[in-house]
Design a protein that fits this description.
7% strand; 57 residues; globular; 2 strands; little secondary structure; two-stranded antiparallel sheet
Length: 57
Amino acid sequence: MAEHKHEILPGVGCDVTGCKYNTVDCRCSAETIHVRSEKAETKGETYCSTFCPRGCC
């Protein structure tokens, strides 16, 4: 299966090294992102629902 490469999203960093969209310089290469948490009040209460484990999707 061919993997599609997307442009890096300007200004969007990513520290999740296990995500297939994380680049070697800690940037996000997903086509779009979706950060979820309806009642988040701190950064730690949010999460990226675009996450996809490397080699899984």
